[in-house]
């Protein structure tokens, strides 16, 4: 954006009201005979930001087709991809971001008249919930079927995975050697007492991990594992993975569980970040893998546009970007991963169909509550 | 439910019985008075109903089948929630009450090095959102943060205990909210404390006794008013407690709603929370009832103290200022500088103007409503008015997320009805500024109402009568007498509301128009992915913009002194 656009923006109607209100405050502050608030308010009805709208319309290229996305994915992770799509096709993409829960509540309330065409989110648990609430419509797409393995798609076609993230074990190589590590369940062993760091159970990533363990180990055994984890904690649970990984680096704990791309981002910033990745459960069920994904919204009035965008996101072009821009794994088989991802070595992913995470989510949360995992 | 105004109108009317003779004019006058009363109370009823709708929507969502989640919540979640809530409220009451009152007393009654600076600088944390203070503090003092890393480099291994628990959260919330107490206590001391000094000196009391026997009891209603705001903020906070990972009502509601997808359970929890608030409000009103409304201009006399005592005061102020504002602020600047190249782009102009725009519209709207409610409350101070006033101010404690959903559901329903009847063709209301305005107004009504109400209570009956005599029309009376008298309260209300709206996150996220991203939305974008460093720039801008109203507030409260 050039300077003159900025100055135009600054002088536009959007600023008159704040200035007026601030002026009013100052006038009141130096009050002798001030104007009444009512008067100022009446005089300054909020000007619609038509200028902005017009500018946006002009910026969009010809066909005027727009896809509106409700996204819980961080804007700047997904925006480069969407910008490229607009470049290639001329289709405008509008992005509304919020947390998953409120987004679904919003879709629910808007019903058939929603402006949204596509829901873009992370974690199969969230996609499963959205589908269960009837917010996503089934679509048949040979492109998606070809690009995305079945275990990362909804059997009924209501949502599809678009990228993969592995949730695995990280360790401090100065205190732990890789051969001491094996499975998630093993971290409940008393030998890790006071050495384990975990993220909060409130995060859906952990809920899905526990759900997958329930599927593999059964409820009883899983609960025992969680209790063991809690007993082994080195410190209060963390509210995000980045802080957890930094705690391992700082020596607060020796092992922890986190998502692969958080580690990738930290390595980007600090190439000699003193933490190593370990692919969990290689001798058993495989490393827990989750997806970020999307679905076509039931009330969409541009379902076609949404599906085309989803298909494009599963194409080679976009899949390569996921890996390089956000350190996630491509969902499509045979895409070249970035050098960093390759340096972590090959691993066997868990074969479970990711929709299980959603089906078992409630039970998983209840189990973690019972076991005292905050 | 709400008693309808009509029923109260039939109660005995004692509206300025004049000594006029002549029954006809008297009855006309009475008629007129009755009509005015009915209209006023209807307006108040409407406003409070309006403010109640989102809360009612949430509380009345019993449509979903009751899961057995409630049993689970009661057994495994609620005990922890109640315990944490009690600890947080107690900590915030004691710590922010003590800090706020003590610092207000020092800066308004003593002369010490830096006193002039601290009198306004200690207000600055008001501009720092609690969730920002939370993530910055954790970033600094956690095991892997710069503080402990530096200590370890010096060979000091005594670990600072983990702050990611209820105690850390209580401490941070206290530091974030003490300015409410400080601001109000300061106003009280400036207007009354000096009189207390004079009286105390005449009686030959020691300073400690002047404070505890005279000044504090007089200022207590103001202190309690500040504590009420701090307690409400504490109960409704979601962002900060999430950073510390502490289970409170807000996180439990979130869990019930978005983890278990049980709106019913969420509503039950919200009802419980509102019950807790009612207790807090009733407690506060008990003190309010005792509040004296005398306002006197004291002399500008201050205590004289010895040098060491002066230094101790400077040290105390410095300490609070450093921990609650300067260090986190410096950390924000540091992070911003580190990420500026990568983050800053022209869109930030939009983020800032959007934030300003939304805050301005909302604040102006709330101020008008607050004046109306306060005036009606003064004219007709009976039980039903009191109840409606309380209800109109209830939104402050409902977690923003719940309120956002509660307002979104009826609006979207209305939209769908309009489309169904062919009046509009698209979602006309849902994406409009109106929804955001309503939701934010509901949430922050009380912030503006409190100061306006306090100011109006200071208006004596004589002043009002004089104004009536001297002016030709009600409009002129308002313009020339009432508003100038009200203006300090209105201004305080405007400014407090403005800062609050700037800081607000969940409602803005859910109800904003497409493309209307604000600074708070940007903070959310970054923190949701754990990119703390990159959340610094928008956070810093929120603080900087919020500083302007805070500065005006200070000038104003000094002027009163």
TrEMBL record, chain A:
The keyword ATP-binding does not apply. Residues 34-62 are annotated as: Disordered. One of its GO terms (cellular component) is outer membrane-bounded periplasmic space. Keywords: Iron, Metal-binding, Signal. Residues 1-29 form the signal peptide. Pfam families: SBP_bac_1 (PF01547). GO terms for molecular function: metal ion binding. InterPro entries: Ferric-bd, SBP. It comes from the Bacteria. Fe cation binds at residues 261-262. Belongs to the bacterial solute-binding protein 1 family. PANTHER family: IRON-UTILIZATION PERIPLASMIC PROTEIN, THIAMINE-BINDING PERIPLASMIC PROTEIN-RELATED. This is Extracellular solute-binding protein, family 1.
UniProtKB/TrEMBL annotation, chain B:
The chain crosses the membrane at residues 43-65, 85-106, 118-141, 166-185, 210-232, 252-283, 311-335, 355-376, 388-413, 419-440, 481-499, 535-554. It is found in: Cell inner membrane; Cell membrane. The keyword Secreted does not apply. Its main location: membrane. This is Binding-protein-dependent transport systems inner membrane component. GO terms for biological process: transmembrane transport. Residues 82-282, 352-553 form the ABC transmembrane type-1 domain. It comes from the Bacteria. It comes from Psychrobacter cryohalolentis (strain ATCC BAA-1226 / DSM 17306 / VKM B-2378 / K5). Keywords: Cell inner membrane, Cell membrane, Membrane, Transmembrane, Transmembrane helix, Transport. Residues 1-30 are annotated as: Disordered. InterPro entries: MetI-like (IPR000515), MetI-like_sf (IPR035906). CDD domains: TM_PBP2. Residues 1-27 have a biased composition (Polar residues). Belongs to the binding-protein-dependent transport system permease family. It is a multi-pass membrane protein. GO terms for cellular component: plasma membrane.
């Amino acid at each position: 954006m050039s300077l003159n656009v900025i100055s135009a923006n600054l002088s536009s109607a959007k600023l008159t009201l704040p200035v007026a209100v601030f002026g009013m405050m100052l006038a009141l502050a130096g009050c002798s005979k001030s104007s009444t608030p009512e008067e100022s308010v009446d005089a300054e009805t909020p000007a619609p930001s038509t200028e902005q709208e017009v500018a946006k319309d002009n910026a969009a290229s010809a066909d005027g087709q727009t896809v509106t996305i409700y996204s819980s994915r961080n804007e700047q992770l997904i925006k480069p991809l969407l910008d490229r799509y607009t470049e290639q096709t001329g289709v405008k993409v509008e992005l509304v971001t919020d947390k998953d829960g409120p987004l679904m509540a919003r879709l629910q309330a808007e019903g058939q008249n929603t402006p949204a065409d596509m829901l873009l989110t992370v974690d199969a648990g969230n996609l499963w919930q959205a589908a269960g609430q009837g917010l996503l419509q089934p679509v048949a797409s040979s492109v998606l079927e070809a690009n995305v393995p079945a275990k990362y798609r909804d059997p009924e076609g209501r949502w599809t995975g678009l990228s993969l993230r592995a949730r695995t074990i990280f360790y401090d190589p100065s205190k732990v050697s890789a051969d001491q590590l094996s499975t998630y369940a093993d971290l409940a062993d008393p030998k890790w007492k006071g050495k384990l760091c975990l993220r909060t159970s409130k995060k859906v990533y952990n809920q899905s991990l526990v759900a997958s363990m329930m599927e593999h180990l059964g409820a009883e055994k899983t609960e025992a594992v969680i209790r063991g984890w809690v007993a082994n904690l080195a410190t209060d649970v963390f509210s995000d993975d980045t802080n957890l990984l930094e705690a391992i680096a700082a020596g607060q704990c020796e092992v922890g569980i986190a998502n692969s791309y958080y580690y990738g981002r930290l390595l980007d910033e600090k190439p000699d970040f003193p933490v190593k990745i370990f692919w969990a459960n290689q001798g058993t069920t495989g490393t827990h893998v989750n997806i970020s994904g999307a679905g076509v919204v039931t009330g969409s009035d541009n379902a076609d546009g949404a599906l085309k965008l989803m298909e494009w996101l599963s194409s080679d072009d976009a899949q390569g970007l996921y890996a390089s821009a956000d350190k996630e794994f491509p969902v499509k088989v045979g895409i070249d991963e970035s050098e960093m991802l390759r340096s972590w070595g090959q691993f066997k992913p868990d074969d479970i169909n990711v929709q299980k995470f959603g089906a078992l989510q409630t039970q998983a949360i209840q189990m973690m509550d019972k076991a005292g995992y905050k | 439910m709400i008693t309808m105004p009509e029923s109260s109108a039939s109660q005995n009317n004692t509206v300025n019985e004049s000594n006029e003779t002549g029954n006809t004019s008297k009855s006309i006058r009475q008629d007129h008075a009755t009509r005015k009363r009915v209209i006023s109370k209807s307006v108040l009823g409407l406003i409070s109903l309006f403010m109640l709708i989102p809360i009612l929507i949430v509380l009345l969502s019993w449509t979903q089948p009751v899961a057995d989640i409630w049993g689970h919540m009661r057994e495994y979640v609620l005990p922890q929630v109640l315990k944490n809530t009690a600890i947080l409220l107690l900590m915030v009451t004691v710590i922010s009450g003590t800090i706020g009152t003590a610092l207000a007393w020092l800066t308004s009654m003593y002369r010490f090095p830096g006193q002039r600076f601290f009198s306004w600088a200690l207000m600055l944390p008001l501009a720092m959102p609690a969730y920002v203070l939370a993530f910055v503090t954790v970033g600094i003092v956690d095991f892997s943060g710069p503080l402990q890393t530096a200590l370890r480099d010096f060979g000091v291994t005594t670990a600072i205990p983990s702050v990611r628990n209820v105690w850390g959260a209580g401490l941070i919330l206290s530091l974030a909210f003490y300015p409410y107490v400080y601001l109000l206590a300061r106003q009280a001391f400036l207007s009354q404390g000096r009189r207390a000094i004079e009286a105390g000196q005449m009686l030959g009391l020691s300073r400690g006794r002047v404070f505890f026997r005279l000044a504090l009891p007089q200022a207590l209603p103001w202190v309690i008013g500040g504590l009420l705001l701090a307690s409400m903020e504490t109960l409704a906070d979601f962002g900060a407690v999430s950073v510390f990972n502490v289970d409170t009502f807000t996180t439990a509601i979130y869990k019930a709603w978005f983890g278990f997808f049980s709106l019913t359970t969420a509503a039950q929890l919200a009802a419980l929370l509102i019950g807790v608030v009612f207790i807090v409000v009733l407690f506060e009103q008990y003190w309010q009832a005792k509040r004296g409304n005398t306002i006197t201009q004291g002399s500008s006399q201050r205590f004289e103290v010895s040098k060491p005592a002066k230094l101790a005061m400077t040290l105390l102020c410095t300490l609070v200022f450093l921990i609650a504002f300067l260090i986190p602020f410096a950390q924000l600047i540091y992070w911003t500088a580190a990420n500026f190249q990568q983050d800053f782009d022209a869109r930030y102009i939009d983020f800032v103007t959007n934030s300003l725009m939304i805050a301005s519209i909302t604040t102006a709207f709330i101020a008008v409503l607050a004046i109306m409610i306060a005036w009606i409350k003064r004219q007709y101070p009976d039980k039903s008015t009191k109840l409606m006033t309380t209800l109109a101010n209830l939104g402050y404690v409902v977690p923003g997320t719940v309120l956002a959903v509660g307002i979104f559901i009826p609006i979207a329903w209305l939209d769908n009805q309009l489309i169904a009847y062919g009046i509009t063709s698209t979602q006309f209301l849902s994406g409009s500024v109106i929804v955001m305005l309503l939701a934010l107004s509901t949430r922050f009504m009380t912030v503006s109402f409190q100061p306006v109400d306090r100011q109006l209570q200071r208006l004596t009956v004589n002043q009002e009568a004089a104004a009536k005599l001297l002016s030709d029309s009600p409009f002129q009376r308002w313009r020339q007498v009432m508003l100038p008298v009200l203006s300090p309260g209105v201004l305080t209300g405007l400014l407090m509301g403005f800062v609050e709206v700037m800081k607000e996150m969940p409602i803005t996220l859910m109800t904003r128009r497409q493309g209307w991203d604000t600074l708070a939305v940007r903070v959310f974008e970054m923190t949701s992915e754990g990119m703390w460093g990159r959340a610094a720039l928008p956070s810093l801008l929120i603080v900087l913009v919020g500083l302007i109203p805070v500065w005006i507030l200070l000038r104003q409260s000094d002027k009163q002194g």
